[in-house]
């Protein structure tokens, strides 16, 4: 059993992710702006986490965890301090307390700005993509964390399919439930470390797709 810290623990993806992590036998610490909205379970502890805080304060909350998930998002309301610098501070905090495994939820083509105008859904969220670019780039270029970055197409509140496509392609949506399952499953998949994985709807079972990375 591992103790997993989920940053942004009250969001839509986080809720399904936490359930999947608990089902896999983990204890979860959920840090959120609104901890009262975190899914309640005997294996889940919710704390208020303020990404405006100093790195040292965030590190105190991370202490004792085995891995960090960053699934927070400001929905366009606080892009610099949450989606960009907030993410960077969690990476620095993880390094301070010796946590190596770090899994980032990101946006499709976040590291390829030249692609954004090719897709209307991405062009519509350019400021968000800019924030994610800086967060993803810092994680890849300026840390020694054992990261996995999952870059998503558009999220949909549709039933889980249990199937996915990794890499570029024509499908432009992801079920939230499928995203959560992928996030949970890459945790203990060493072949996903130091990888940026584009995810979209597809026909390959999730376990098989992860194995093929």
**Largest sheet report:** 8 strands, mixed
- The number of E-state strands comes to 10
Could you give the distance between the termini?
A: 25 Å
Shape: globular
Task: Please state how the strands of the largest beta sheet are arranged side by side.
Answer: 3-2-1-4-5-6-10-8
Question: Using only CA atoms, what is the Rg?
Answer: 16 Å
* Mean of all residue-level pLDDT scores: 95
Structural class: alpha/beta
Classify the helix fraction into a percent range: 25-40%
| Poorly predicted ranges | none
Number of helices: 7
Strand content: 25-35%
Secondary-structure element sequence? EHEEHEHEHHEEEEHEH
Structural description of this entry:
- By secondary structure, this protein is an alpha/beta fold.
- It is 36% helix and 26% strand.
- It contains seven helices and ten strands.
- It has helices spanning 12-23, 55-62, 79-96, 120-123, 126-142, 176-186, 206-211; strands at residues 3-7, 27-32, 44-48, 67-70, 101-107, 146-152, 154-156, 163-166, 173-175, 195-205.
- The strands form two sheets. An eight-stranded mixed sheet has the order 3-2-1-4-5-6-10-8, sandwiched between helices.
- Helix 2 packs across helix 3 (79-96) and helix 3 packs parallel to helix 5.
- It starts with a strand and ends with a helix.
- The model has no long low-confidence stretch (mean pLDDT 95).
Can you tag this structure with a few keywords?
213 residues, alpha/beta, 8-stranded mixed β-sheet, 10 strands, 36% helix, globular
């Amino acid at each position: 059993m591992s103790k997993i810290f989920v940053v942004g623990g009250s969001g839509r993806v986080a809720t399904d992710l936490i359930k999947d992590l608990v089902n896999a036998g983990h204890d979860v610490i959920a840090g959120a702006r609104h901890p009262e909205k975190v899914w309640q379970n005997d294996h889940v502890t919710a704390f208020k986490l303020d990404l405006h805080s100093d790195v040292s304060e965030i590190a105190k909350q991370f202490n004792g965890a085995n891995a960090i998930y960053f699934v927070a998002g400001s929905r366009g309301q606080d892009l610099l301090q949450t989606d960009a610098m907030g993410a960077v501070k969690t990476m620095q905090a993880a390094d301070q307390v010796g946590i190596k495994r770090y899994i980032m939820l990101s946006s499709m083509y976040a590291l390829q700005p030249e692609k954004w105008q090719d897709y209307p859904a991405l062009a519509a969220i350019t400021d968000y993509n800019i924030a994610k670019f800086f967060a993803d780039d810092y994680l890849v270029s300026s840390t020694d964390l054992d990261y996995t970055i999952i870059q998503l197409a558009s999220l949909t509140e549709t039933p889980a399919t249990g199937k996915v496509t990794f890499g570029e392609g024509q499908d432009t949506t992801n079920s939230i439930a499928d995203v959560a399952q992928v996030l949970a499953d890459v945790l203990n998949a060493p072949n996903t470390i130091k990888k940026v994985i584009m995810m979209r709807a597809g026909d390959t079972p999730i376990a098989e797709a992860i194995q093929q990375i």
